Amino acid sequence: MEALEQLRFLTPAEVGQIAARWGTPVFVYDEATLRERARQALAFQAPFGLTVRYAMKANPNAQVLALFDQLGLAIDASSGYEATRALEAGISPRRILVTAQQMPRDLVSLVERGVLFNASSLHQLETFGGNFPGTEIGVRINPGVGSGHSHKTNVGGPASSFGIWHESVEEIKAVAAQHQLTITRLHTHIGSGTDPLVWTKVARLSLDQVRSFPSVTTMSLGGGFKVARMSYEKTTDLQEISQVVADALRVFAQETGRKLHLEIEPGTYLTANAGSLITTIDDLVATGSDGYKFLKLDSGMTDILRPTLYAAQHPLIVVNDRPSTPERYVVVGHCCESADLLTPHPDDSEVVATRPLQKAEIGDLLVIEGVGAYCASMSARHYNSFPRTPELLRRADGAVEEVTEP
After folding, report:
1. CB 361 within 8 Å of CB 284
2. What share of the chain is helix, strand, coil (3-state, %, to 5)?
């Protein structure tokens, strides 16, 4: 039987205390983990300067944004609405960069306030140029390759709509010339990955594109750094990745005399394992000797949609002090929806997967780990009219405060 997963930063006593005070379900974010992850990201090797932009779509809570701003991280916003949210959290507009699938409806007001913009399509570039001729802009280019555990998380390559296709360089130049735009930032985004060889290839592909734009001074390598939520998974070695990127930048500088500033855009890496979701086992049902034992939670896809969307695996820990032999369970959410499943099979949606857990009873607490990224911010909130789940921040001194936003 597989090993049981363990709590990441909360103790069993803290889990009980928080549940008793705030009820369940409830998100808890850990400041100490957020600080440590930020420190690691800021240590990314960049020989000619580094900007770490937090991909705020991972977790846009204002307290998280404020903490990262205090620590020296800038903001990567994926919509005009995210940019506005960051501004409302007190982030300086010059530290916010918008790279969006949908052209911000308030683009003009955002840019006039100082927010930076990357054009992700020729249409966006044309629209920006029409509004702001003679100014600077960044462009997002699809380098023709991607990296992710599935096509749903792969945002580079011919099957991806993200960015301007890398063979459209001359069209980019023509639009820029028409509006007297100076392209100062080149942005690529490949998806999530841990393989240094993939990052080496993308860095080189990106640098090849930079050669076509003499005015570019900043290369932005988007793409998530894989985080091990489950104990058997592998977390990206940032130093290993940064070494190959730094080497590529040095070689480029030697060949061209151009010393490029580097930007990276971690989201999951910074916040995923800084979040826990405390739930209560609301019911336990069985489907006979040839069936399964189901644990029904008072949470589900209204808080954590990743298992439904991606068959993502999250650690599940039953919190009780009763000694027992682990049992295998299917864990499901509280929605009237067959896809509200917390133990999906990672490879086959038609297979019912079970998970070994501490023997559970109705009323026990169950903690879902790895929920600091793309959970509260990316959920089926309000489905079945379930209310919004509170969010808490566990400060570095152990104090816990509510940081739920309207």
Report:
1. yes
2. 30, 25, 45
Which residue reads 């600080």 in tokens? Answer: 35
Instruction: Calculate ∠ Cα 238-240-244, nearest 5°.
Output: 110
Q: Identify whether 4 is part of a domain.
A: no
Which positions are catalytic? 336
Which of 80, 90, 74, 58 has the alpha carbon at shortest distance from 262? Answer: 74
- Residues 289, 251, single domain; the answer is no
- Give yes or no: residues 221 and 290 share one domain: no
Phi, psi of 308 (to 5 degrees): -70, -45
- Residue 121 shares a structural domain with residue 231: yes
Q: 13 is written with which tokens? A: 């006593």
Using DSSP, state whether 188 is helix, strand or coil.
strand
Same domain? 223 vs 316:
no
pLDDT tens digits along 246-283: 999 999 999 999 999 999 999 999 999 999 999 999 99
Structure confidence by residue, pLDDT tens digits, 22-68: 999 999 999 999 999 999 999 999 999 999 999 999 999 999 999 99
Structural domains of the chain, count: 2
Q: What is the pTM of this model?
A: 0.94
Last residue of a domain, one of 271, 300, 330: 271
Closest to 236 in 3D by CA, of 190, 286, 167, 278: 190
